[in-house]
Amino acid sequence: MDSIISLVENHIEYAPWIIFGLLLLAGFNVPVPEDGMLFVAATFAARNPEQLPQLFAAVYLGAYLSDLICYGLGRYLGPKLSHWRLFAKIMNQDKIDRVAGYYRDYGMLTLLFGRFVPFGVRNILFLTAGLGHMNAVKFAAADLVACTLSSVVFFSVYYRYGQKIVLIVQEVNVALFVLAVSVGAYFYFKRKNAA
């Protein structure tokens, strides 16, 4: 992450394009943290207010298009992805079945909630939506709402509070992750015991 910050710092005039490009790579499962890009964009916007609209647009559009890329890969390449090293780790059938069950049981709330969960959960959600041939228009609309909400909230908080808020957000993200795993485990065992 430090090298990304240095790159953006040294080329602030190209920062929106750098951030946008890196986020597009995340759609192909290249490990580029969306939260990190939001932080970088917002903190640079705070230091360079004239770049604020471009930096927000870059991080917002990059995140949204990245989601659509990931969905498209799942939908159109499907099982072939498991042979690609970049996808092999997240493409095990148990994870796919579990997430598909969340979509089936909770619909778009899965996407809205999952958008705020870190640690690679987002890409699993988007790939699984594609693999399960979720309606593309519904996916794009729900993800637009979720991406808008998360981007505006995190960008605003990072812009206003900068480094001070990073530790708090990291703790909240860990708490959300633990909550998501706990809720998932609860429903898994509840369903397993009912069967």
Automatic annotation (TrEMBL):
User: Where do the TM regions start and end?
Assistant: 14-32, 52-74, 106-127, 139-159, 165-189
Q: What's in the keyword line of the UniProt record?
A: Cell membrane, Membrane, Transmembrane, Transmembrane helix
Membrane-protein topology = Multi-pass membrane protein
Q: Where is it found, in Gene Ontology cellular component terms?
A: plasma membrane
Which InterPro entries does the record match to this protein?
DedA-like (IPR032818), VTT_dom (IPR032816)
* Species lineage: Bacteria, Pseudomonadati, Pseudomonadota, Gammaproteobacteria, Methylococcales
Q: Where in the cell is it found?
A: Cell membrane
Top-level division of the source organism's lineage: Bacteria
Q: What is this protein called?
A: Alkaline phosphatase
* Family named by the database record: Belongs to the DedA family.
> Where is the major localization of this protein?
membrane
State the Pfam families in the record: VTT_dom
